């Protein structure tokens, strides 16, 4: 009797097995053969699910992003003001900071190897970036795309600061400060501390 395979689960397991490879060796340092070995499959099986390394990488970024968004959006309690919402979001991100940093470093490495951002080359990475920005806008109640971009850039920068050993404050403290900054901006621009 043929074995019944849950293809979605199998695909996710293959992606999970290659995430650490990309984090450890960088995009250029990982071969499909290594990914197959790490996943415990033949290269033929791997190519059945992913036709090339770039599509594997795009699927990995999409999977990591979906998982991280699910974690953060479900674990971020609501806030009555943008200040509270920003602070709550930082608190929800804190337990996942190491994984988020790993994901950021994987994307930076890809960009370094190709000379252009992954989001410009791989549609699934672009979709993942768009999903992050939409989640930030929705979760934080921020309608201005410039503020969403600013928030994402600050998060990336803070993760890199911690990675480089330069943290001068915890994520929670930085979230409180950023919340105060956003509230002051909304107060000055709209006459209200909320968006």
Quote the distance from N terminus to C terminus: 60 Å
Structure classification: mainly alpha
Helix content: over 70%
The number of strands is 0
Total DSSP helices: 10
How large is the radius of gyration?
19 Å
Could you give the order of the helices and strands? HHHHHHHHHH
The dominant shape is elongated
Beta-sheet strand percentage?
under 5%
How would a textbook summarize the main sheet?
none
Give unreliable regions as ranges.
none
Mean pLDDT score: 85
Fold and architecture overview:
By secondary structure, the protein is mostly helical. 76% of the residues lie in helices and 0% in strands.
Brief characterization of the structure:
The chain is mainly α. It has helices at residues 7-25, 32-39, 43-49, 53-75, 82-93, 97-114, 118-121, 123-140, 145-163, 171-190.
Strand and helix layout:
Layout: H1 7-25, H2 32-39, H3 43-49, H4 53-75, H5 82-93, H6 97-114, H7 118-121, H8 123-140, H9 145-163, H10 171-190
Helix pairs in contact: 1-2, 1-4, 2-3, 4-6, 4-8, 5-10, 6-9, 8-9
Provide keyphrases for this structure.
195 residues, mainly alpha
